[in-house]
What we know:
Elements: H1 2-9, H2 13-23, H3 30-42, H4 47-63, H5 69-81, E1 99-104, H6 111-124, E2 129-134, H7 139-152, E3 155-157, H8 165-178, E4 183-188, H9 195-210, E5 215-223, H10 227-240, E6 245-249, H11 259-267, E7 271-275, E8 283-285, H12 288-296
Parallel strand pairs: 1-4, 1-5, 2-3, 2-4, 5-6, 6-7
Antiparallel strand pairs: 7-8
Amino acid sequence: LTRLRQRLAGSQGALGRGLLSLLSRDRLDEDTWESIEDTLLAADVGVAPTQELVEHLRTRLRVEGEADPRAVLREELVNLVGPDLDRRLHVTGEDGKPGVVLVVGVNGAGKTTTVGKLARILVAEDRSVVLGAADTFRAAAVEQLTTWGERVGVEVVRGPEGTDPASVAFEAVKEGMVHGVDTVVVDTAGRLQNKAGLMDELGKVKRVIEKQAPVTEVLLVLDATTGQNGMIQARVFSEVVDVTGIVLTKLDGSAKGGIVVAVQRELGVPVKLVGLGEGADDLAPFDAGAFVDALLG
Ligand code: GDP
């Protein structure tokens, strides 16, 4: 929590501080409510959730005259973020098979980095892990994942550049089955050339994996700094593959934490992990209360 607070202090923190200072004004007049709305919209909270939140704040602070704006804001923000969403990661398989985590998203969102950091978390929990470097279109991605594998101490299954991503995914899961590992994490290619192409590619990857073991989690990696553009991409991915969790990366460098709310609403899928930096330990489980506390500083 301390780290979350530190990381968000410079960027996200501005949102919480801005809202608090507006709500602490002596008179909550129309101008103030408008500024509150603007602040939320600027942080990518989205139109409908913003209106909802402002409505609740108005009722509680102005109509009902509750005295503690900070407490009210905290409660309402936590509700908005979803304190009761099931954010558990499904990394365990059944019938002696490994759990299979498929990691999808556009290039540059932070997929490969997330796979590396996730492997580290799983290893720290004493799980055995195999990684699949199925982003075969970018040699750099395969190299990058190999480096992560060495760093974390897990095997990385890879193929020559340009290999069919599905065949690498297949081999990775096979390797995981042979060695009886707990979890196989598969990095995928994120070329958003067109929806049909993406659907073919990810569909095939998923199908060949499922010849051996069910995919237990599909994580969509989304760059928090990309705003509406990122939301459009997220929608395309969610139409192509059944996303079960969102990883929001680069929250450390964005003042747009509202995207947590927007993307959950849009996709109906919870944010499960957040990326807070480029380092190996900079991936954290998402917790609504801790997140809002970090926002409010
Ligand atoms: P991919 O193309 O989706 O696999 O993206 P990469 O994993 O290669 O990441 C793209 C860039 O974003 C790299 O420079 C990463 O170090 C950086 N990155 C990834 N996650 C985070 C994060 O949570 N915070 C910050 N600041 N940078 C990140």
